[in-house]
Amino acid sequence: MAQFKGGCLCGAVRYAATAEPIFSGVCHCTNCQKHTGSAFSCVIAVPKPALSITGRTGEFRHKGDSGKDVITTFCPVCASRLTSEATVMAGVVMIEAGTLDDPGVFEGKTHIYCASAQPWVAFPEGAARFPTMPPMAG
Ligand SMILES: [Zn+2]
Ligand SMILES: [Zn+2]
After folding, report:
1. Is there a domain that residue 136 lies in?
2. Total number of domains in the chain
3. CA-CA distance, 82 to 67, in Å (whole number)?
4. pLDDT tens digit string along 14-32?
5. Percent of the chain beyond pLDDT 90?
6. Centre of ligand 2 from the C-alpha of residue 103, in Å
7. 137 assigned to some structural domain
8. Cα angle at 124 between 92 and 119, to 5 degrees?
């Protein structure tokens, strides 16, 4: 079991999870680009019951590719995006790896929505690259 601990930029929101990650990946979709203000987002997915959050969070919903809601949580004070949940993946929550106390545990080996990746993005050698969403295992 891995331990994940982190929080937002201002420290008002903290979270912790002890879990075997379900998957981790770098998402180059245009929604993540817009929402992070960057070129991609880095997420580690864990079972939702494993994650505990302390502090008040805001919630934002938008439609994913599937047409179903994606729910993101953020700190209402400093606006750091902390987690996202795709309602198509019930029981799974994705932690934004950049908010971990030790973001170095994240390995950017799986890249999704590469069709909208920025042209200057260099992929690590041996990285798995999918043009959109990879077919779900299981
Ligand atoms: Zn904050
Ligand atoms: Zn995305």
Report:
1. no
2. 1
3. 22
4. 999 999 999 999 999 999 9
5. 91
6. 18
7. no
8. 90
**Domain contains 98:** yes
Residue 43 lies in a domain: yes
Which residues are close to ligand 2, an ion, with C-beta < 5 A?
27, 29, 32
CA of 128 to the centre of ligand 1 (A): 33
Output the CA torsion 74→55→77→75 (10° steps): -10
Chain segment 86-130, per-residue pLDDT in tens? 999 999 999 999 999 999 999 999 999 999 999 999 999 999 999
Q: What is the DSSP string of 72-83?
A: EEE-TTT--EEE
Task: Provide the CA 28 distance to its chain's centre, in angstroms.
Answer: 11
Closest CA to 110 of 32, 30, 44: 44
Distance 100 CA to ligand 2 centre (A): 18
